[in-house]
Design a protein that fits this description.
The chain is mostly helical. It has 12 helices and no strands. Helix 3 runs parallel beside helix 6, helix 3 runs antiparallel to helix 9 and helix 7 runs antiparallel to helix 8.
Length: 297
């Protein structure tokens, strides 16, 4: 009887888990599928059954999004800013995490605590101080190099936005990489030292290959954050070099007025596609980076 009760409770628990996972998956897949389906509809089809399949593949919506709303230009800007921010972030965070996780020195505990504290600072709360710092820096540069007052130095700069993205993501990235690197044994590392490898060579040829799952996890999380970021881009890119989230908001405002919902959903799909493709490519490494540590046999 006890075994039967245990089996029934185990089945009930599994059913509950699978039911919750199915509901959660549907809550994600249904809006995504509906948005993709709507992107191929003619605007006249939205006045009928909203759940009906599109009568044909109306690619004119994507042409309108790229041509009229400049989504192609915004896509390139987002790609440049996100890619540059990820490069800067990894170049700084990987060596920093390596030092904090593998070496002990006087201020190591303080630095670890400092980066852990940075996890509790939401970037949306410090946008105004960042904006004021950028303005002050722009004034100083104009005075030193005698630049015209109407010329923009730091505002509307993709490089500056990339630097701010990378710097605001440093606490999370260093904390995650440090935690993973601490779990790696020092056997391979010590063998490299015996063979005469420097710290830099050991980092490049030993530590980074072993930490690849964690690095891919960091890349994915930060790519999603940078790609979808809105507040900093809105503040520091007021005139040109807009990113996709800003372009999407403009497109939604224009197309709502024109009641052309097909083009609006086409713009939404343009924003979603890169993140979906990236997640599909790295999902195995993502799971491995979040759960696995130590030497692989």
């Amino acid at each position: 009887m006890k075994k039967l009760k245990e089996m029934s409770s185990d089945k009930l628990y599994r059913f509950f888990i699978y039911f919750c996972l199915s509901v959660f998956a549907l809550s994600i897949l249904v809006p995504i599928g509906w948005s993709i389906m709507s992107a191929f509809k003619h605007k006249s089809e939205f006045y009928g059954n909203p759940w009906a399949l599109p009568e044909g593949l109306y690619f004119e919506n994507f042409i309108k999004a790229f041509r009229d709303a400049h989504m192609g230009e915004y896509f390139i800007n987002s790609l440049i800013i996100t890619g540059l921010a990820l490069i800067i972030l990894l170049v700084v965070a990987i060596p920093a995490a390596y030092v904090l996780s593998r070496f002990t020195f006087k201020s190591s505990k303080f630095l670890n605590g400092l980066f852990a504290t940075g996890l509790f600072i939401n970037v949306n709360y410090i946008v105004v101080p960042i904006f004021l710092l950028v303005l002050d820096g722009e004034k100083v540069v104009r005075q030193i190099f005698s630049i015209a007052a109407n010329a923009s130095v730091f505002l509307d700069s993709r490089i500056v936005v990339s630097l701010i993205y990378a710097s605001t993501a440093l606490p999370f990235t260093i904390y995650l990489l440090t935690s993973y690197l601490k779990s790696l044994p020092k056997a391979y590392e010590e063998a490299a030292y015996i063979d005469g490898a420097s710290y830099l060579k050991t980092l490049i040829h030993v530590i980074i290959p072993m930490a690849k799952p964690s690095i891919i996890t960091v890349i994915l999380f930060n790519f999603l954050a940078f790609w979808n970021e809105y507040i900093i881009a809105l503040t520091l890119l007021p005139n040109k070099s807009k990113t996709l989230p800003l372009g999407l908001i403009n497109l939604m405002q224009v197309q709502k007025t024109a009641t052309d919902y097909g083009a609006m959903y086409a713009g939404l799909v343009i924003v979603m596609i890169p993140t979906i493709i990236l997640y599909m490519l790295v999902q195995k490494k993502l799971t491995e980076g979040m759960t696995v540590g130590g030497i692989k046999e």
